[in-house]
Amino acid sequence: MQRDFHFDERTDFMKENEILKIYGTDYKEMTKRLLMEAELEKRIPGKETRIGIKPNLVSPSEASWGATTHPEIVAGIVEYLQERGFSNLLILEGSWVGDKTSESAEVCGYLDLCSQYGIPFVDTQKDSFHARDCKGLKLKLCDQAVDLDFLINVPVLKGHCQTKLTCALKNMKGLIPNQEKRHFHALGLHKPIAHLNAGLHQDFIVVDHICGDLDFEDGGNPVVRNCIMAAADPVLVDAHAADLLYYRPEEIPYIKMAEELGVGSADLSRLQIRLIGEKSTVEDGKRLPESRKVVELKDAVEEVESCSACYGYLIPALAMLKDEGLFEKLHEKISIGQGFRGKEGTLGVGNCTRKFAHSCPGCPPTEQEIYEFLKTYLNGKNA
Q: How confident is the model at residue 315 (pLDDT cuts 50, 70, 90)?
């Protein structure tokens, strides 16, 4: 059940336990208004500060699809900073394993944005990296991210088929190399996500809550909210995001783990929400639809250390089969993940299951390829 929070309409300096929200459709101007209300410029040490802006460009899909950060939000951040004399800016991100960041940046409008404002785009898939201690866990971090003086994280609030939620904490995963992303999945995602945030600090968060897909991290089922949030505590942001999606923060292990590592607070009883603008008071009272589409589909999967892209393409493919009435014909588990390398089995997805009797090749195979493979398998089996 969603909690009742204290709402505040003051316009003073944003506190650590506050989340600012604004609703509307002029996303660039909404973002600039939020940053003015939060007095972001007072948090930045100086005009020469090296400031990184980290959107979510998980895959080459437009923001309206519900997976990637709206470029208008980032444009609003850039304009706000440049208008106040901050010129040492860059945008940095790395798409998930299986997609090229350059394609995502082009499709999502970020190459045009960078050209318009004269700022560089850093593809962290191509960046150098070094292993660093992240509060007891050694992780490989991209050098460009480590070298920043100030990091503005711009995640999309959306569902995730493995961790239930992705928002501020998990979005930092775009600042590690691809080989470390695979390692994250071998470690079970939650622990390394928490330690990543202990080792790589985000200074400010602007949340894209415009139309995130509440089921799939790769989008396809956007739920329009037309909301943007601003905050300073990523753990509190994710605890609130979990609550909006009808989860308790403790149901998402990396939130509590990050709190225990000192990244922030998940105590929702301390949360103060400040609504900006008259429209926000009305809109914020509307509840999100409660969707658990992924839960039923996940029951058909046996997953061991699978990568986000592979798993993220499998679940929507199963949804397509369900829409056609074929999902109910599936009586065996679909194996997926690095844990099946070298093993034999019946039905698998991805190159890690290449020794299975029936395996869909690819690293990762696309959603359409998985769908066609499973459809052929089911039709042949039930012929």
A: confident
Candidate ranges 4-8, 226-230, 327-331; pick with highest mean pLDDT: 226-230
pLDDT for residue 103 is more than 70: yes
316, 367 Cβ separation under 8 angstroms: yes
CA 93, CA 79: separation in Å to the nearest integer?
A: 19
Torsion sign over Cα 9, 15, 17, 19: positive
Q: Is the confidence at residue 9, as pLDDT, over 90?
A: no
CA 337/CA 360 separation, integer angstroms = 12
pLDDT given for residue 97 in this prediction: 86
Reduced to 3 states, what is the DSSP secondary structure of residue 39? coil
Residues 6+ apart with CB under 8 A from 304: 335, 336, 337, 338, 339, 340
Separation of alpha carbons 60 and 327, rounded Å: 27
Q: Which residue has the tokens 């999967």?
A: 301
Q: Is the predicted pLDDT of residue 130 greater than 60, yes or no? A: yes
Phi, psi angles (nearest 5°) of residue 113: -60, -45
The H-or-E segment that residue 358 falls in is strand 358-360
Token code pair at residue 250: 């403790």
Residue 244 tokens read as 């909006």
Residues 105, 122: Cα–Cα separation, whole Å: 10
Gap between the Cα atoms of 379 and 69, Å rounded = 38
pLDDT (average), residues 104-110: 97
Residue found by looking up tokens 């039709």 in the block? 379
Residue 28 to residue 378: CA distance in whole angstroms: 47
d(CA 50, CA 31): 20
Q: Go through the domains of the chain in sequence order and give each one's CATH number.
A: 6-283 (3.40.50.11440), 293-381 (no CATH)
The mean pLDDT value for 102-125 works out to: 97
Residue 152 tokens, joined: 């503005």
Summarize pLDDT for 50-85 with one digit per residue, the tens.
Answer: 999 999 999 999 999 999 999 999 999 999 999 999
Alpha-carbon span 231 to 240, nearest angstrom:
11
